[in-house]
Amino acid sequence: MPPTYEATSAWAQAQDAADPLAGFRDEFLIPPHEGRDGRYFCGNSLGLQPRAVRPALSAELDYWGELAVEGHFKGRAPWLNYEDYLRDNLAALVGAKPIEVVAMNTLGVNLHLMMVSFYRPTAERPAILIEAGAFPTDRYAVESQIRYHGFDPADALIELEGDGPHGTLSMAAIERALAEHGHRVALVLLPGIQYRTGQAFDFKAITALAHARGCTVGFDLAHAVGNLPLALHDSGMDFAVWCHYKYVNSGPGAVGGVFVHERHATAELPRFHGWWGNRRDNRFQMAPTFDPTPGAEGWQLSNPPILAMVPLRISLEIFHRAGMDRLRAKSLQLTGYLEWLVNSQLADLLEIITPADPTQRGAQLSIRVRGGRERGRALFDYLVDQGIIGDWREPDVIRISPAPLYNRFADCLAFAEAVRAWSDAG
Ligand SMILES: *Cc1c(COP(=O)(O)O)cnc(C)c1O
Q1: Which keywords belong to this entry (predicted)?
Q2: Which residues does a 6 A CB cutoff place in the pocket of ligand 1?
Q3: Which of 34, 277, 376, 420 is most solvent-facing, going by the fewest CB within 10 Å?
Q4: Global pTM?
């Protein structure tokens, strides 16, 4: 039965009171606005700070002060094998085997490291296929990789134009592009969720299509991790990269994540080597020859930045306790409510460009304001003044993302009421 929604605070508050995940909100610092909690809808850009991060960071600083180099071996969580404290929770979060994931570097760096191994262009097959309007770093990265290998992006960068409403991309368009260009494509690189439209893609179907044409497949999961339940191993994709500062709440510039499918765990692939990618059991023999750790950890270059790993460790523990399936169930309700409010109360003012099919989106709704860009900017600025924080993406999109760990139905209603108040004020 479809959920029945109501645009009243009594209804919204009753939903929040009955929410089995409601307690998680108290584990986060909610940015205040004029003496009360603001309405934060920007977890797609920078997730909120878990309260447990500060004491955990403080403990590491104490170890550093008291133990110094001995901190690698002593304390409650010695630094030497810090990956061990994250691996299982990270694997569970993305639906991977522990050997397939590692937290390291940042998204852009990891994308390049993965392309070193998984973009192997030849004269017959030089191309990379991406979506038109890809996030800048992704486009810059693939363009520079194409040039680095001596090819010309004018010929070897294929950008797939959206054929659906509001620039969304249908499976049929992906299928057609692979049928036409697949024989020339070395790498297909697509987003898990497109950052501007909020459209979610079917990894498994795309991977099967691309593999059938002999292409390698990677995904940028920046907007998908911590937002959708994922099954990366089963999808069969070759690799994925993502960041942890968006839905995974690990702080500005947080350490990123990488997935390398198990079938490549011991494959002889070209890659850039560093001592932390070497096997643990002989890492400290300081041998001149690189002997890789099987799996994703073999791509590590450096010993991990412990102070930056702490918020990620804490955040992954929160996701472990909340469970991605329960979060998704709430997210469907919460984003469904926001969508219903916009379509039933605000259709004269706003238009949602994110797919209406819940299986083709996560928490985020991308919204255009009727009447053009200037009106959109004006509404966006008004909302910020009211303590309602979304974000603006050029040329004309307001992104509003209720995050199920800390957003409430009452927040969605407050958004709708503020938009109406803005319109009424003329
Ligand atoms: C957020 C985001 C990035 C950011 O990359 P960093 O290297 O973490 O700065 C890259 N690509 C996509 C698709 C994103 O959404």
Answers
A1: Hydrolase, Pyridine nucleotide biosynthesis, Pyridoxal phosphate
A2: 106-108, 135, 137-138, 191, 195, 220, 222-223, 243
A3: 34
A4: 0.97
